[in-house]
Design a protein that fits this description.
About 10% of the residues lie in helices and about 35% in strands. It is mainly β. A hairpin with a 5-residue loop joins strand 8 and strand 9.
Length: about 160
Amino acid sequence: MNMYRPIHIIFLLVIMLIAAPLPAIAAEQKIALRNGSSLYIDDRGGMRMEDAAGVPFRMKDDVVMETAEGELLLMKNKRLWKRHRHKAPTAGHRPDNSGITDEVVRLKGGGILVIGEKGDMRMQDSDGKPIAMPDGVEMETEDGKIILMRNKRLWRPFRD
């Protein structure tokens, strides 16, 4: 047996152990924030932040952040949320073609959330009766997606 063979095997194992974390680092997404800090999200959803000087700091819960592009983000319940942008239905999706620009989000259990063009919202139960909108509470839509209400605004998970 060649005496160098075990050394080669050990050398290859060491190289594999060193190289294994490299794809995880490469998969990290950087989001530049308006205040100069950066938010990093790895492919498993782990997050970290750095200030403008590159010094890491702790993320605060329930604080709205603005990206360099103007999108609003929120850290809430150990999740990153993005502010929902109004999507008015086209006239073809309205039976009366009345030009109403409200967006309707159907909730699990039969309730609905109606979002006006200016972001104003109202919530109704399955019978159409108005109900108070809970603030800071996650809700599930009819299609199984999670949404969050905060300060009368709708937030969706960041990667949704």
